[in-house]
Design brief:
The protein has about 300 residues and is mostly helical. The protein folds into 2 domains: about 160 residues, no CATH class; about 90 residues. Helix content is about 55%, strand content about 5%. It is built from 11 helices and 2 strands. A two-stranded antiparallel ribbon has the order 1-2. Strand 1 and strand 2 form a beta hairpin. Helix 2 crosses helix 3, helix 4 packs across helix 5 and helix 9 packs antiparallel against helix 10.
């Protein structure tokens, strides 16, 4: 039993460790867009497209409501046009992928030719060749770290500031860590361990109940394991309930709920019903007789219960 608990704790620690990398969609705004829309932090299992669209929609609305009194008429016109382009871009839902980096990073144009939000704005106003040139020099760079005269001129004419362009630019999760519609590997592994342990636990306690052997001391442990698995299922489902395709998360939650509930019921049933009465003798006083020389002698006998 101690070995099983050790493995269970190891799996839980593994799942928590796997989700400790930087999960911010943007270095400036971080995950503010997702929190304001859904009320929770996104997790490593949250749908990537949903996160990017939520971020770009938030930035578009933020920039449209920003005062632009210091801009020329040309800059103001360019700004409105770029925000209209940004709206069309995020609604299409086609975004580049981070194939090469081990952490969340911007990607100007990926190996499939898919362009990022800022890259798209450059492409649509300055030409694809300019976007391609930027990509050859700074594919995975934050826009604040790109030092090119062409880009600096474009930003100056765009009506957007460098800070605002940095707000737009998303960070993309590494493709090998992108589990868009599934719980994390660690969470699944821990759930499998929980399910196996509780299945064994349920069989044992049902057997004790049916045989009425009085072995119900471990029933409380069984109830605790069942409650723990249900809590585990709730914790891992609630952080990803806003995914566009929550089917797998519902299955994950239902499995933990069912296994945990069976463990609670079987353990509880064993604890309540499997109580054989203790057999013990009570203290009592009785009469006794024995013959002495053709006569019967009477006396009192004390019996002490064990």
């Amino acid at each position: 039993m101690k070995t099983l608990f050790t493995l269970l704790l190891a799996f839980i620690c593994l799942s928590n460790f796997a989700s400790t990398f930087d999960n911010n969609i943007n270095p400036v705004l971080k995950n503010k867009s997702f929190i304001e829309k859904f009320g929770i932090e996104p997790s490593s299992t949250t749908d990537e497209i949903l996160r990017i669209q939520t971020h770009l929609e938030y930035v578009e609305n933020l920039l449209r409501n920003t005062k632009t009194k210091g801009l020329s008429k040309t800059q103001q016109t360019n700004r409105v046009h770029l925000l209209d382009l940004l709206h069309s871009y995020w609604q299409a839902g086609i975004f580049p992928k981070n194939y090469d980096m081990e952490e969340r990073k911007p990607c100007f144009i990926d190996k499939d030719g898919t362009i990022c939000a800022v890259g798209y704005l450059v492409e649509q106003t300055a030409g694809r060749d300019v976007a391609e040139y930027i990509n050859t020099q700074y594919q995975y760079a934050n826009i604040k770290d790109i030092h090119l005269a062409k880009l600096n001129k474009w930003i100056k004419d765009s009506g957007l500031s460098l800070e605002e362009c940095a707000m737009i630019q998303p960070n993309y999760t590494p493709t090998h860590l992108s589990n868009r519609n599934n719980p994390t590997t660690g969470a699944i592994a821990a759930s499998i361990c929980f399910t196996g342990l509780n299945t064994y636990n349920s069989i044992v306690h049902l057997n004790h109940s049916l045989t009425n052997d009085g072995k119900n001391k471990n029933a409380i442990t069984g109830v605790f394991l069942g409650v723990s698995q249900i809590g585990w299922g709730i914790a891992n489902y609630s952080v990803s309930k806003n995914n566009q395709n929550p089917t797998h998360h519902k299955t994950f939650f239902a499995t933990n709920l069912l296994s945990g509930s069976v463990a609670i019921l079987s353990s509880g049933f064993n604890y309540i019903t499997n109580r054989t009465p203790k057999t013990s003798k009570k203290n009592h006083i009785g009469l006794f007789t024995y013959p002495i020389e053709n006569n019967l002698v009477y006396g009192l006998q004390w019996n002490r219960g064990l």
